Amino acid sequence: MALADAVREIKANSSSWLSRYLPEFAWQSGYAAFSVSRSARDDVRRYIENQAEHHAKRSFKDELRELLQRHGLEFDERDLA
Hints:
- It is built from four helices and no strands.
- By secondary structure, it is mainly alpha-helical.
- The protein has two domains: 1-28, no CATH class; 32-81, no CATH class.
């Protein structure tokens, strides 16, 4: 299954369920997804576990912007909201 199809299914199927409990809930229009090699799995796990602390020092938006630039990926700044 293509990633875009999986994300669309997750958003569609979870929106109705979530809105029962959180009427104000809405998914953002976009998403970012990156693959990770098996050898980096433990590093990624630690990053996720410490994400709140990490993002207290540096915003997710700033981090995502740098990651996209570092890999030469085009993006629209408006999509990083």
